[in-house]
Task: structure prediction
Amino acid sequence: MSERISDTNNGTANSEARTPRFNRSKTVQVIISILVALALWVYVDVEKAPERTKTIRDVPVEFSGENTTLADKNLMLLSGYDTTIDLTIRGPKRELVKMSRDNVRVIASTSSIDSVGVHQLDWTVSFPDGVVRTNVSVEKASLSQITVTVGELYTKEVPVECQVIGEVAEGYFTGDVVLDPEVLTLRAQRDDLLNVSCAKLTVDISDTDKSYENAVGFTLYDYNDIAVDNSAIRPAVKLVQVKVPVKTTKEVPLEIVVKESAGSTLEQTSYTISPKSVTLAGEKDVLDAINSIALDTVYLQDISQSQTLYYEIIPPENTELVGDNQSATVTFTVTGVTEKTVTVNQFIVERVREGFRGQCTTESIQVTIRGLTDEIAAITDGQVVAVVDF
Result:
């Protein structure tokens, strides 16, 4: 009896063990089926679905040639330059999803305008990169033509003023502000430009240790320092490039590069530089790369008994000297070295071409030799020989 009970229990256990495997297999099949159905739906929806439409609203109109061709004729747009158009575009979904108000452009050319007054302009649509132009079309637009009013162009140049606010980090200071452009060209009708005196902008450099550089918007002001809000005035640029140098200082030593030779070494020659160092001002990353300023390369063989050389201190690029130290002196002191002039009347000729004979017709020459005092004193005229290399 116990054996039969045991068999029954084993059969039940095996059945329970097989059930989870069966359920896992069914689950995988269901998931695969869902993924295949989803892929088919995407394929049909994107690739095989019939064409559909998409409406993009308030696309701003761009006027080509406004600042070139039209301006060359002393003409300008007085109205219509802020026109927008609603576009309904037809095409496959795969093309329509690539389009938005940010990358679809409406362009109207001003090249046909040659007089003041009201003009009607045709326009074209420029689609973003990646869109196949032959697959899409403009089905409907809120305007068929762009209406603009054209007037006589007047120009006026006004200075750009920059106000710097805030304090830079401790140990830093600001340099001269650089503006591009420094003078702003305005275009408008004559009456609109009469009271405009300048363009102003503001930058904040609080707690910075790096130079400020950015393109900044500006506001026009009249001669009473009141802001001018007139959309009929067309600046040549919308932003001014501003750089506010933020600098610090660093003390760097002055040095010379010394070249030694036989009889002229640093064992016999010493030198001092005055001043020993200077203070440079510049941007931090520039100063970090500067460890010293080399005044010159000096060959000790050219240095006679003690002498002084004078140098202008030239600061490295993008830095400037701080203080009154604009020049330096280098004083050389020579010890234990002397010079002596001897008469040479012995000549040896070397490397004469085969078949020829070399002969020196000079009877004697004067030679100045230099070296340690004791060694130079022991040299006589007869010990020095001149070698002529043919």
In short: Confidence is low (pLDDT under 50) at residues 1-17. The chain is about 20% helix and 45% strand. The first helix runs from residue 2 to 48.
